[in-house]
Request: fold
Amino acid sequence: MGLILFPGDGDIAGLDVAWSCTGSNAFRRRLAQAEGSVLDEMRGFGGERPWSDVSTTLEPFLDRPDDGGGELSTAECTAILPRLEAAIGEWQEQAADLLLQRHIEDVRQLALVLRLCIEKDIELLFL
Reply:
């Protein structure tokens, strides 16, 4: 399967962002790396390091089981959005490989979905 994130407004034709399992893992690894963490070292991803050791606003997004499910509140979306937008700027300054460009587009799409959730005051759902 993979991971799909979408606003909890019931609009099945609305905005979403989706990854394959491999794509989701690669995207989260890059985000964790941008926060100074190695995802594979974290509890729930093969390691033993607890998430309480990591200080990042992206933790509610990163600390997710691979099988989806759950949601992010409007407050969590609001906290995550500025860090994601900052990541776009940081990544654009780096050498532009194809996977990095894909991750930049993923962040842009995720930011659109988060903004919609914030504007409508609705949860972001994981499937």
In short: The mean pLDDT is 91.
